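Re: weekly structure request thread

Next one in the queue (291 aa):
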Amino acid sequence: MKLSTANSHDKQPCQRQRQRQRGQSMTEYLIILPSLLLLVLGVIQFALIYQAKASLNYATFMGARQGALKNASMTSIMDGVAGGMTPFFMRTSNAPFLDDMAKARMISAIEVFNPNTAKVEIISPTPEAFDAFSLMSTTGDISNDNLMFRDSNDLKDGMSIQDANLLKIRVTYCVKLMVPFVDRVIYALNTGIAEVKNMTQASYWASNAETIPNMCSKMNDTYASARQQVDSLTAAMPAGVSLTANGLANAVINQLPQQFPTIPVLNWNVGGMRIPITAEAIVRMQSPVKF
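Done, posted below.
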C-alpha cells in the first residue's frame, strides 16, 4: 500500500508538467499563427502575380508582333495584347470550351482597352523620329525596304532608319490581388498608404492622398472619397438617427456599388485592389510605320 501510494504521488507532478507544456505550446502556436498565415497567403498571392507577369510577357510580344504586321497601329497592338492575355482569364466550368474561351477573350479585351486597368505605349520609334523620317518618304511613313543599303549615320532624334524600324512597346497592366487579407497588405505597401482607416474596404488613408500613387490606385480614389463622405456624414448626424434617414448620405451609398461594376454575363468585376506590372517587347517592323 505504501508503494502504490508513493507511485501515485510521483505521477501527479509529471501530469501537471505535461499539462503546462501543452498550454505553453498552444500559446506559442497562437503567437506564431498570424505570421504563418501571412506568409502562406503571401506565397499564394505572389505566385498569382508571377503567373500574371508571365502571361503579360507573352501578351506584350504578341501585341508587338501584330503591330509589326499592321503598320504599328495602336488598335492592332492592343488587340494582340488582349489575345495574348486570354489564357490568363480562362476559367473551367461546365460550359463548352469555346464558351469559356469567348468569355475570357471578352474579359481580356475589357481589361486591356480600359485605361484604368491597362496602358499600352509605343517606345520606339519616337514621334519625333517618325515625323523626320516620314518627310523623307513619298508615302508619309517610315520605309522598311532595302534597310541594309540605307545610311545608318543619318540620325533623327538619335535614331537611324534601321532603329526606327524596330517596334518597341511597353504594357503596364493592373493585376488584381485575389487572396484575402494579404491583398490589402500588398496594396498598402505598393501605394504607400500611411494609415489605413478601414481595412474592410478598398482604399483609405488619413491624409486623403496616397504617398505613392500609381495608375492602378486611381480606380480606388473615387470609391474611397465616397466612403469618406459617408463617414463624415455619419459623424455629423445626431445620435439615434439612422444613416439612411439622411438623404445625402443615402444618395452617396447608392452610388458606391456603381464604382466597381460587375458584368453579369461574364461574371467579372472590373474593380478591386490592383498593383501595376510591366512588360516590354521589341519586334522588327514587317510593314511601314504609320502613326
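Residues 2-125+165-284 form one domain. The first strand starts at residue 118 and ends at 124.
Next request, please.
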